[in-house]
């Protein structure tokens, strides 16, 4: 029979192990990506891999330059943010600051519910409904273009941005607002001079997380971006972002081949980009917490 | 003076109206997408569509195997992720002291939550399918999905545990219970509805994930239901993608894709709705 102190200690250590599970998996992902993907960097050269644009993994001799894929991802993500940030932040401000509480209690859950719509559904809509529409409007050979991907990713990032930015604005203490109103500022002035500056780092967190979601999104871009590995010089032409490349080609790349390694190489780049986004988001979040708690 | 005041008021009104308009259009756009999916897919749904096997190379018949497959994948993922996530959350809220350790753990959770879904797919392919030799199977898919939702479950459980008032803990400790007895008999039961809500949200998220299962579990067309954890399966989200992207008979297959999309959408929206209601109810109970 164990005495209770030892038993408590054992339980604590078991729980600690579970608490590290996330870090364990994260480390596992990093190890797997580098083990499978790093050989391509030494074969091709990391600069060649990143900055040349011949992606011909199945040709002889093959080309493993991901510049067009990388720029495809970046352009599509920026486009998505151009759409999602104004709409998302404006919605968040309106819901948090202007909308009467009884409406807020309906609108906020509705938007959160929409955040759960699976990406493949957005993909279906973009491919079969928005695609033909864009083709018609712009007179294009295909509606599956960078623009389509930007619009769909922008819409997808909306719920994330609205929900998190709304949280940030609501978290600004009531007495900040009261103090400003008492000094004679009206609600608009209070919003621009007091609420938004205080909530700014929280809103930045929301936008960065929205960006992270957009650049890592796979199914939607796989279905709507068109899939041609061109440099995204024209948003009315197809592109092939990194995620779409991985999803489309992994099935046909023999395990351990150069092509397979190159796809894992793309995943390394993608992982590092989202890691940087997350670190920035975390940093902004810490700043926000300090600001709101008045330290 | 008078003039300036009315001008200030007018500006305020204009700015607020613009914000309101942007908010309404955001919701409208999301509504339009759901509307179109329903409009095109609702006609396909019938009892037979939901309960029969696909026929003629996925051009006719129902989607039963995809429903069953999704059910297996989601159940497996939740069964694995829930204990992991809840135990992790217990350590983080009940044992860890504020400081470096908890900060590192939290950074781990946040970063895992931000990993792109296709990267999880590659991890699953390399570890579960190849290294552990589970093959393209329910087991590989469910394990991969479990990692995908782990952060969701940890965060929800953490929130639920933190909302349990400290008096509960001190009363139990004062009565002579050990820390673990207190957690097991007092804190966990009080946090259960919140933890459950987190699991339900996890179900909603994981039911729609496609990229993690493409290389680990999913198959386009199956004539029979899976008979072991090592079978490959059809799944609702993958079925939609495969039908529109790789199907060779669009006239017959795209309606099936819309039908599948309606099933998936209804499922996910219902799940989220339940979770939201539970959260509202639970948070009311705790503030009273």
UniProtKB/TrEMBL annotation, chain A:
SUPFAM superfamilies assigned to the protein according to its UniProt record, in alphabetical order: MetI-like
Specify the protein's topology with respect to the membrane.
Answer: Multi-pass membrane protein
Under which name does UniProt file this protein?
A: Phosphate transport system permease protein
Q: Where is the ABC transmembrane type-1 domain?
A: 70-281
Gene Ontology terms: cellular component:
plasma membrane
Span-the-membrane segments of this chain are 14-34, 66-99, 111-130, 150-173, 194-215, 260-281
**InterPro entries given in the database record:** MetI-like, MetI-like_sf, Phosphate_PstC, Phosphate_Transport_Permease
* Pfam families, A to Z: BPD_transp_1
In the record, the note on similarity to other proteins reads: Belongs to the binding-protein-dependent transport system permease family. CysTW subfamily.
Q: Name one GO molecular function term.
A: phosphate transmembrane transporter activity
Where in or outside the cell it occurs: the entry states: Cell membrane
- The protein's role, per its UniProt record: Part of the binding-protein-dependent transport system for phosphate; probably responsible for the translocation of the substrate across the membrane.
**Which keywords, in A-to-Z order, does the entry hold?**
Cell membrane, Membrane, Phosphate transport, Transmembrane, Transmembrane helix, Transport
Could you provide one GO biological process annotation from this protein's UniProt record?
phosphate ion transport
UniProtKB/TrEMBL annotation, chain B:
- List, alphabetically, the Pfam families matched: BPD_transp_1 (PF00528)
Q: Which domain of life is it from?
A: Bacteria
| PROSITE patterns found in the cross-reference section | ABC_TM1 (PS50928)
Q: Which GO terms describe its biological process?
A: phosphate ion transmembrane transport
Gene3D superfamilies for this protein: MetI-like
Any one of the GO CC terms: plasma membrane
| Principal place of residence | membrane
Where is this protein found? Cell membrane
Q: How does it sit in the membrane?
A: Multi-pass membrane protein
The ABC transmembrane type-1 domain is annotated at 67-275
Q: Which residues cross the membrane?
A: 14-38, 63-92, 104-128, 134-154, 256-278
Tell me the GO molecular function terms.
phosphate transmembrane transporter activity
- Keywords from the UniProt entry: Cell membrane, Membrane, Transmembrane, Transmembrane helix, Transport
Q: What family is reported?
A: Belongs to the binding-protein-dependent transport system permease family. CysTW subfamily.
This chain belongs to the protein called Phosphate transport system permease protein PstA
Q: Which organism is it from?
A: Halanaerobium kushneri
Q: What is the lineage of its organism?
A: Bacteria, Bacillati, Bacillota, Clostridia, Halanaerobiales
